[in-house]
Design brief:
The complex is a heterodimer of chains A (401) and B (222). Chain A is α+β, with helices and mostly antiparallel strands and 401 residues long. In chain A, strand 6 and strand 7 form a beta hairpin. In chain A, helix 2 packs antiparallel against helix 8 and helix 8 packs across helix 10. Chain A is built from twelve helices and twelve strands. Chain A has two domains: 189 residues, no CATH class; 176 residues, no CATH class. In chain A, 54% of the residues lie in helices and 18% in strands. A six-stranded mixed β-barrel of chain A has the order 2-3-8-5-7-6, surrounded by four helices. A two-stranded antiparallel ribbon of chain A has the order 11-12. Chain B is α/β, with parallel strands linked by helices and 222 residues long. Chain B has one domain: P-loop containing nucleotide triphosphate hydrolases (Rossmann fold). Helix content of chain B is 33%, strand content 29%. Chain B contains seven helices and ten strands. A six-stranded mixed beta sheet of chain B has the order 6-7-8-3-9-10, with helices on both faces. Chain B has a four-stranded antiparallel beta sheet with strand order 2-1-4-5, covered by helices on one side. In chain B, a hairpin with a 2-residue loop joins strand 4 and strand 5. Chain B is globular, with a radius of gyration of 17 Å. The two termini of chain B are 20 Å apart. The interface between A and B is medium-sized, with 25 and 26 residues.
Chain lengths: 401, 222
């Protein structure tokens, strides 16, 4: 008997026993649905956390003044320090340098006021952190050169001060001085929140803090594999500028967010795996269900097997018939489960957990794995019953009532 | 066509050994119609199983159509059953969930042959039941089911049709029509071997072999 005939025979038998077939499939439907959906949620969670981190500039290095109390002289970081890092000959591995200053301020618009952190920035910051413009425009190099009295508002601050009115072109008071609002930023969500204002670094230095010091310098290497070289270059340039003797400790620290990010990611991957494992248990239960029903089916159909053998079915024909039945049942169950999982993922759409949005992600790999595992489980759980069926003695089977 | 030489079958049940057939020899020519009779436990079922290549003898030789089939493997026996034998059982043994046509096609599927529908239709016509081709066995009468079974037995042009109590579940009239059908097939040249315990049925055949305690006690040509 050809393989196509075996498949046809198996499918006919599945359709001839609709009730039993659908009950058998149910276990696989639930198993595959659970695995795909749980892993999709896990992956969605992982993606949302990773994106959030990246938007916050987690792939950058952060240089800040050391808080080590044992140091006798600590020179603050300055704009000149930041500029020195952009030297392409001394620092070939450094791609982007974005110095910032932070200060808590009170912003007022008429009677509305908010206490928010103000950050003095250079436009280059957008290459490290993601700021999506909602209205108006972002701070430009021109604004920095002119020390323009302009601010960009975070989403929450915009809501607090303007409550729905268009703020662009309006003026606000920051620590009593007048600034023009040139733009607003879309909601970021995440841990930092949306209550903040941004202004040109030069404006902040001259009007709010004085001097040329900066608080933090964010540095991005030219490529991810150059990060270690970038750290070395920052250290040697700033050590020289701060007159640190060889062997002495630096008066600044370089924070590498990659470690935090990678440990976060491995935690999330473990979480995903755990979700998958929970689903896998139901897949195993589904497989056992198939084996159970196939065994019952072999006993129930002993006479059919006897008849088939009497008229010329070989051992292999019977084995294949039952194996294909098991595989087809579980594959169909798997496909239905997958369809349910996709439908479920679409129905869930976006899940809001606090400020984090999770979008379930059904990837091609999980689909292939889930379907592969379901066929595999089917074949595995079908093997023993099929083997039993193939071994049956035709005389005994024909006598079976 | 069929030749048994010193054939024995001993069932080893661990503690005891039961003799099913004891040194049996007989032969039957192509085109003969033979009945095998005997009380229950006489060994006629054992003989039927061996003639039907469902079982192997413990010793002796069984030549079917000139080939020694007594030492073949299970799969080789399956092939012989498919190509050279046609079975007719007392309880019909049709698959209940597929229609008559599909039942008749089954042997062709296992030998991987083409034009199955046409051939199955012809076989159903030959036994006079083509009007029931699309019916499931549970929707048919005993006589109709047995005709379908005979069509299935005929489909691969077997050298022998083996009928095990073919009228055991049928009333007298239907029994008569089934036996007439088998006789007609025999007249067309097919060898028919019937196991029965009814004298009336044996009377349709030209030759009757009586079996008792695993031995042939009588071999009578009418």
């Amino acid at each position: 008997m050809s393989i196509w005939e075996s498949i046809r025979t198996a499918l006919n038998s599945i359709f001839a026993n609709k009730m039993r077939s659908s009950l058998t499939m149910l276990g696989m439907v639930i198993g595959v649905c659970a695995v795909v959906l749980l892993v999709a949620l896990g992956q969605g969670f992982q993606t949302s956390i990773t994106t959030m981190f990246n938007n916050l500039g987690a792939s950058a290095l952060y240089v800040s003044t050391s808080s080590d109390k044992t140091l006798t002289t600590v020179r603050p970081l300055t704009l000149d320090d930041a500029n020195a890092l952009t030297d392409k000959t001394l620092a070939p591995s450094i791609g982007i340098v974005s110095p910032t200053i932070n200060k808590g301020v009170t912003v007022q618009n008429g009677n509305n006021s908010a206490n928010v952190p103000a950050t003095g920035i250079l436009p280059v910051i957008t290459q490290i952190k993601t700021y999506n413009i909602d209205m108006g425009r972002f701070i430009t190099d021109q604004d920095v050169a002119n020390r323009a009295s302009v601010v960009v508002l975070g989403w929450q601050t915009e809501q607090d001060l303007f409550a729905g009115q268009s703020p662009v072109g309006q003026s606000v008071r920051v620590s009593g001085q007048k600034y023009q609002v040139i733009g607003t930023i879309q909601k970021l969500g995440g841990m930092t929140g949306d209550g903040y204002i941004l202004m040109p670094l030069s404006t902040m230095q001259s009007k709010l803090v004085g001097g040329t010091n900066v608080q933090s310098i964010a540095v991005k290497a030219v490529s991810p594999d150059q990060v270690d070289n970038a750290i070395a270059e920052i250290t040697s340039i700033l050590n020289a500028r701060h007159f640190i003797r060889p062997g002495a400790s630096s008066d600044f620290t370089i924070r590498d967010m990659r470690e935090t990010l990678s440990s976060m990611q491995s935690t999330l991957a473990a979480f995903s795996l755990f979700m998958g494992a929970v689903g896998a248990i139901s897949l195993i239960v589904g497989g056992i269900g198939i084996m159970n029903i196939m065994l019952v089916s072999v006993t129930e159909r002993t006479r059919e097997i006897g008849i088939r053998k009497a008229i010329g079915a070989k051992r292999r024909d019977i084995l294949l018939q039952f194996l294909i039945e098991a595989a087809a049942l579980s594959l169909t169950g798997g496909l239905v489960g997958l369809a349910l999982a996709v439908a479920g993922a679409m129905a869930m759409g976006h899940i809001q957990l606090g400020t984090t949005t999770i979008v379930p992600e059904i990837s091609a790999s999980i689909v292939i794995i889930a379907l592969g595992v379901s066929i595999g489980t089917g074949l595995l759980s079908g093997t023993y019953p099929a083997f039993r069926a193939a071994q049956l003695d035709p005389i005994e089977s024909l006598r079976h009532e | 066509m069929i030749e048994l030489q010193n054939l024995s079958k001993i069932y080893d049940l661990g503690e005891v050994k039961v003799t099913g057939l004891d040194d049996v020899s007989f032969s039957c020519e192509a085109g003969e119609m033979v009945s095998i009779m005997g009380p229950s436990g006489s060994g006629k079922s054992t003989m039927m199983n061996i003639l039907g290549c469902l079982d192997r003898p413990s010793s002796g030789t069984y030549l079917l159509d000139g080939d020694d089939v007594s030492k073949l493997s299970d799969d080789q026996l399956a092939r012989v059953r498919n190509k050279k034998l046609g079975f007719v059982f007392q309880s019909y043994n049709l698959l209940p969930k597929i229609d008559a046509l599909a039942n008749v096609e089954l042997p062709l599927i296992y030998s991987g042959q083409d034009h199955r529908h046409e051939r199955a239709r012809k076989a159903l016509e030959a036994v006079g039941i083509s009007n029931r081709a699309r019916h499931l066995p549970p929707e048919m009468s005993g006589g109709e089911k047995q005709r379908v079974a005979i069509a299935r037995a005929l489909i691969n042009d077997p050298v022998v049709i083996l009928a095990d109590e073919p009228t055991g579940n049928l009333d007298t009239t239907t029994s008569h029509s089934i036996m007439t059908l088998l006789t007609d097939l025999n007249k067309k040249g097919i060898t028919v071997v019937i196991v029965t315990h009814e004298e009336d049925i044996a009377a349709y055949t030209q030759r009757t072999i009586h079996v008792r305690d695993g031995k042939i006690t009588e071999d009578k040509v009418r």
